[in-house]
Specification:
Protein name: 2-oxoglutarate carboxylase large subunit
Strand order of the largest sheet: 2-3-4-5-6-7-8-1-9
CATH architecture of one domain: Alpha-Beta Barrel
EC number: 6.4.1.7
Largest sheet: 9 strands, parallel
Shape: globular
Number of helices: 19
Helix content: 25-40%
Enzyme class: ligase
GO biological process, one term: gluconeogenesis
InterPro entries: Aldolase_TIM, Biotin_BS, Biotin_lipoyl, Carboxylase_cons_dom, PCB-like, PYR_CT, Single_hybrid_motif
CATH class of one domain: Alpha Beta
Structural class: alpha/beta
CATH topology of one domain: TIM Barrel
Oligomer: single chain
């Protein structure tokens, strides 16, 4: 008799992150969730990871309301699992003890059953306290060893010996757990290594330990990897539903069901009902823009291991910022960033640190500008990397960021930081007259300015849906996009009101009838302060009339989840600020003038 294999349906969390950059509104997918429930599925990934911050950043929704709706839809008995990043919980920034405990208590309060808890550096000290909080809150704890394949030619970590060592550290630390997961977010771990790793884990873990394996189809070997894991003794795998399956996502339930036919394993599902549920799901998502890279295998991923969930999140941001054409360069640059960064697993938040540094290497020149999160990682502020990072990169990071390397545990650093924790969040809520609920405190602690904007009703909608009014095109990234050819040369032009963008350069224009256009007046002797990269205006620090010194920040942009200061190029007086908070700006756009 074939062994029945458990699986978690990831379609409504990792599927959304991997296919749509996590930008999906709750009301749009609930009918598909109902259909999946009616098809007999009862183990779902229901939140956490990028599907926490993204709801506040892009969807104008409360993640806690989403979790409540999820539980109400599937009923009281379903196993609802969320994703947590150890001391980072559900953000890119690591947190203090009180926020980590609040995370577990709130996710229990809002209907979750299990939390899959990982550390991207496989630094076990980052799992000890968070794991304890999860169990003490009454949740099941699925402790994780994170996996990937190193770029070809790299050695020193991420082999079966390394993973066995991490697992032994988890056992020695006596972290309470209910199950163990081996998580390969980039889908790059070769099947033979998956088999050897899980076979060795089965030997050292108690006989009844529940072992779960997670991968993505990004590199094209996910079904082989799942077969290898099952043959080695895994109890469960992760599968998704179309249209959030294959490509950057997990394999489809239908695909895995087919792959297992005639083997000694089988999925315990009514496959016809699953097919019906997928039909409902496709209908629910028909208005969403599905990036072409989300449904494709990427052969270059083994050289530049990018998780499926990070891949489309980043390409969505590149599209927002008008630099999608530079994406191939960034993927190429990422290989060097991974090689020199200490071999942290390419899974959030480390995968984002890798991509941010690759982004900077492309936009500013190789290693000319260290991305702050990447710099802090190589300097030890997120924990110990599997191998020491490149000493030259460490020196650059220390010099540019103005901080020394550290070996202090992140939790200790965060608890000593007066700007982190519940109390600074409480003060911010009081300052803005907002309710001091546990939920609001957690939103501020993990989402910062964007969380505050949401709570104040100032969040902007950032989802991508198909523009059905567009003529001759299926999707439009921005209103008024054109490809203009002059003398055989192509120019990408966007016209948006009184702003025209030509090949990434933004011009503010006055469009009037030709006969009414006044003669141009020579401008005063002023210096423009331009954006060095595309982004969104996060904060304005100086105002017209302010005296500023060279190097002093005038405003702050957010680009690729980084805060980027725009500094005064010289001493002077601020003559004008030409942008507003929340405004999207392009590379080279004038932001302010100095006189």
């Amino acid at each position: 008799m074939a062994k029945k294999i458990d699986f978690m349906c990831t379609a409504f969390r990792d599927g959304f992150q991997s296919a749509y950059g996590a930008r999906v509104q709750t009301a749009d997918f609930l009918p598909a969730l109902e259909a999946a429930r009616d098809a007999g599925l009862n183990y779902f990934e229901a939140g956490g990871g990028a599907r926490f911050q993204s709801l506040y950043f892009y969807c104008q929704e409360d993640a806690f309301d989403m979790m409540d709706a999820f539980r109400a839809t599937v009923g009281p008995d379903a196993n609802l699992q969320t994703l947590s990043r150890g001391v980072n919980v559900v953000g890119l920034e690591s947190q203090s003890s009180d926020v980590i405990r609040l995370h577990a208590e709130l996710f229990k309060k809002h209907g979750m059953t299990t939390i899959r808890n990982f550390d991207a550096l496989n630094d076990v000290q980052n799992l000890v306290y968070s794991g304890r909080c999860i169990v003490e809150a009454g949740l099941k704890h699925q402790v994780v060893v994170t996996m990937m394949e190193l770029p070809p030619g790299c050695v020193g970590a991420h082999d079966a010996d390394f993973y066995a060592g991490v697992l032994q550290q988890i056992l020695d630390a006596e972290i309470p757990y209910d199950s163990v997961c081996f998580k390969d977010a980039s889908g790059t771990a070769v099947p033979s290594k998956v088999h050897e790793t899980i076979k060795r884990a089965r030997k050292v873990l108690p006989a009844d330990t529940y072992i779960h394996f997670h991968t993505h189809e990004t590199a094209g070997v996910s079904v082989q990897a799942y077969m290898a894991a099952l043959e080695a003794g895994a109890d469960a795998i992760d599968l998704s539903l179309a249209p959030c399956s294959g490509g950057t996502c997990q394999p489809d339930v239908l695909v895995m069901w087919h792959a297992l036919r005639g083997s000694r394993f089988e999925l315990d599902v009514d496959i016809d009902k699953v097919r019906e549920a997928e039909g409902v799901f496709k209908d629910c998502m028909k208005d969403y823009f599905l990036p072409p890279e989300a449904v494709a295998v990427e052969p270059l991923i083994p050289w530049s291991p990018m998780p499926g969930g990070a891949l489309t999140a980043n390409t969505q941001m590149l599209r927002d910022n008008g630099v999608m054409d530079r994406y191939p360069e960034m993927i190429h640059a990422m290989s060097d960033v991974v090689r020199r960064g200490g071999y942290g697993t390419s899974v959030t938040p480390v995968s984002q640190f890798y991509f941010q540094q690759a982004f900077n290497n492309v936009m500013f020149g190789a290693w000319e500008k260290i991305a702050e999160p990447y710099g802090k990682m190589v300097l030890g502020y997120f924990g110990k990397t599997p191998v020491p990072p490149d000493p030259k990169v460490i020196a650059l990071a220390s010099e540019q960021l103005g901080i020394e390397p550290t070996s202090r545990p992140p939790l200790e650093l965060n608890d000593a930081d007066p700007n982190k924790g519940v109390e600074p969040a409480r003060k911010l809520l009081q300052q803005h007259g907002l309710a001091e609920t546990d939920e609001n405190l957690f939103i501020i602690a993990t989402c910062k300015d964007k969380g505050l904007a949401f709570l104040k009703g100032e969040a902007t909608l950032g989802i991508r849906k198909i523009d059905k009014k567009a003529t001759g095109a299926t999707t439009v990234d921005h209103p008024g996009d054109f490809a203009l050819r002059i003398g055989g040369k192509r120019f990408d032009v966007r016209v948006d009101g009184q702003r025209v963008t030509v090949d990434g350069r933004v011009y503010d224009v006055d469009m009037v009838d030709k006969s009414d256009a006044p003669e141009p007046v020579p401008s005063e002797d002023v210096t423009e302060v331009a954006a060095q990269m595309p982004g969104v205006v996060l904060r304005i620090l100086a105002h017209p009339g302010d005296q500023v010194r060279a190097g002093e920040p005038i405003l702050v942009l957010e680009a690729m989840k980084m805060e980027v200061r725009v500094n005064a190029p010289q001493d002077g007086v601020v003559r004008s600020i030409g942008v507003e908070v929340g405004q999207q700006v392009a590379n080279g756009q004038a932001l302010a003038t100095l006189g």
